[in-house]
TrEMBL record:
Name assigned to this protein: Redox-sensing transcriptional repressor Rex
Gene3D superfamilies associated with the record: NAD(P)-binding Rossmann-like Domain, Winged helix-like DNA-binding domain superfamily/Winged helix DNA-binding domain
Residues of the DNA-binding region: 16-55
Gene: rex
Subunit structure, as described in the record: Homodimer.
UniProt-listed HAMAP family: Rex (MF_01131)
């Protein structure tokens, strides 16, 4: 049987549906139509139905989606029903902001460990998270079976850190350093480059 690949744009929208459904659930809304869900997110109802149809038959024609059922299913699809252990490398300005960002918790996600090379930072706490020496990376990643890492070190250290992470079993990297990481094909890398967002605005104003 030919496997149907879910478009990347659909996958990108799933967290939006999830967050929206969380809000609806908090507001005790039990059922939502694709039209209303789409209106809340600025997405056409046809797109909402198509996106969700890749994962199953969640809605009922003329009725809509049961919020709690769709929320539970999306939680599973997005892997948010797992207790992921996440390590941050580089507890500088950005790293600190990420650890202190409370909204990850609303998704059931948490940065559990922070590593840095700076002796002046090692031993300090970012909230509940103690900053450990980066020399502990190998042992920590292996012992805690960490599969997700956040790289927030300067660009010239990022590749070396990525190599160590991958060698110790990390499978997914959220990379904030403005550099392309060379990793094996099976490693999932998500690059976050804030300057690209800002440049897209200056580009449009300059047209
Ligand atoms: N600050 C931002 O808003 C921002 C935005 C986008 C991208 N970035 C990128 O994210 C990265 C971090 O930015 P920042 O502003 O937090 O810088 P920063 O200088 O404040 O922090 C970097 C931290 O990494 C640590 N570090 C350096 N080498 C290391 C190594 N080998 N192992 C472990 N820790 C190491 C430093 O001691 C420092 O604490 C940079 O690559 C930067 O370009 C930053």
């Amino acid at each position: 049987m030919k496997e149907i690949r879910t478009p990347a744009t659909t996958v990108e929208r799933l967290p939006l549906y999830y967050r929206c459904l969380q809000k609806l659930s908090e507001q005790q809304v039990e059922v939502i139509s694709s039209k209303d869900l789409g209106n809340m997110l600025g997405i056409p109802s046809t797109q909402v139905r198509k996106d969700l149809s890749y994962y199953g038959e969640f809605g009922r024609r003329g009725v809509g989606y049961e919020v709690s059922v769709l929320l539970k299913n999306l939680e599973k699809i997005l892997g948010l029903d797992n207790d992921w252990e996440i390590v941050l490398i580089g507890a500088g300005n950005l790293g600190q902001a990420l650890v202190n960002y409370g909204n990850f918790r609303n998704l059931g996600l948490e940065i559990n460990y922070a590593l840095d090379v700076d002796q002046g930072k090692i031993g300090n706490h970012l909230g509940d998270v103690k900053i450990h020496s980066v020399s502990e990376l190998d042992d920590l990643v292996q012992e805690k079976d960490i599969r997700i890492a956040i790289v927030a070190v300067p660009a010239d250290s990022a590749q070396q850190i990525a190599n160590k992470l991958v060698a110790n079993g990390v499978e997914a990297i959220w990379n904030f350093a403005p550099t392309r990481l060379e990793v094996p094909e099976e490693i999932e890398v998500r690059n976050e480059d804030l300057s690209i967002g800002l440049i897209s605005l200056t580009y449009h104003l300059s047209e």
